[in-house]
Sequence to fold (493 residues):
Amino acid sequence: MARVFRRSSPGRFFKALTVAAALTVAMVTAPVSHAQGPASVADLAENLADAVVNISTAQNVSGQRALPLPQVPEGSPFQEFFEEFFNNQQPDADRPRRVQSLGSGFVIDGIEGIIVTNNHVIEGADEITVNFNDGTKLSADLIGTDEKTDLAVLKVTPHKELDAVNFGSSDNLRVGDWVMAIGNPFGLGGTVTVGIVSARNRDINAGPYDNFIQTDASINRGNSGGPLFNMDGQVVGINTAIFSPSGGSIGIGFAIPADTATRVIGQLREFGETRRGWLGVRIQEVTDEIAEGLGMDRARGALVAGVTEDGPANLSGIEPGDVILSFNGRPVPEMRDLPRMVANTTIGATVPVIILRRGEEVAMDVTLGKLEEMASIAQAEAVEDGDEVPQDKAVVLGLTLATINEELREQFTLSAEVKGVVVVNVEAGSAAEDKRIRPGDVLVEVAQEPVNSPADVQAEVQKLRDEDRRSALLLLSNGAGELRFVAVRIDAN
Fold:
């Protein structure tokens, strides 16, 4: 391929020489800078490295064929052919295999040999080996795990006191603070990376108590369970997850805050399990539209969509439609903050709660129970046998509504516990359709007032129109009795 050269004009040529000469003079005469960049973290890393460990696990997994058998009709001559062919090609495919994985952890008690890591690092492991910085390897026993926060506590029997690190306060962290991660990325061994806290209180949908520290300190596969240090050498987080399309660090990593971890770790050490407070409510977010429908000045708190029968909230008088504004003397900024507040409260403690009910703040005391994994979700109030009302229909807010009768109950598979006004049709393009209201949904309340007929719905919506409300807060139930709140614009219909 021919090359094309272009010459500059003489004027540009000499001008370029003049600039080059000026730069040369500047480079010769400019003072030499002695700046060395940010302060070195070498001493800090050296002091902490021996307390950080690599964790390797091994487990047996069931054998699985690399390729599935083709689906052929039962008894077909091809069935025997394919089975014989695949068995000959993969004679050991169904045998159990030994699988190994690597992660990180750190020592928090050098005398007792207590080590912290992530639950997903050791989950399902038959053997857990802890590898120390000096080459020592010790077998570890599992003390306890917590899937909800992805934490695990291990114990080794040390031949001498181990180097250990202490927790600091993650609540004192500020966006922009320097942090340092030490771990075992990609099985390479002890690796130090430095960055800043790039965000706090991140919710990445990993569990019910998400409150992650986000950092740009490089965190990769194998860093899981390793510590995130502040510049005082205190553990302020436990590296857990990364956001990455490729599987490698792109500068977005997440760590469990130390203030969340210390409580869980303490319970795992003492009881071998976590013991969390339980309120017995099903909650949902207070959106701007729902806040407006409730007459609130702004969106805040947690909207109670259901209460567990005989649960702490139910026994204290909390009802669906209440908004929990404050719990145990602390405001509830968003829905997702309440589960953490409740979980961190002592079981059996009686705490003050402030709710918003029909526009008025109400104070009450609630005695918390213990969170049970199989705690049931609240159900709608039962309908007494024999309750029969004549069917009538009306169109309100783009919804064709009918009073429930046995025919509609059977048509939409509504349980006997569900009562209210059933939606039989939704107008295409309406605000109700945008809110994903569907035929078969049951309207239980409008603006926190119970409705039993389409006429009740019309009356309540008209009241809202008279008050110049722009949206109507609807409490809906599905066929099984599970409740949810939806705010539907009035002026859009």
Notes: DSSP finds eleven helices and 28 strands in the chain. The radius of gyration is 31 Å. The mean pLDDT is 81. Residues 309 and 348 are 18 Å apart (CA to CA).
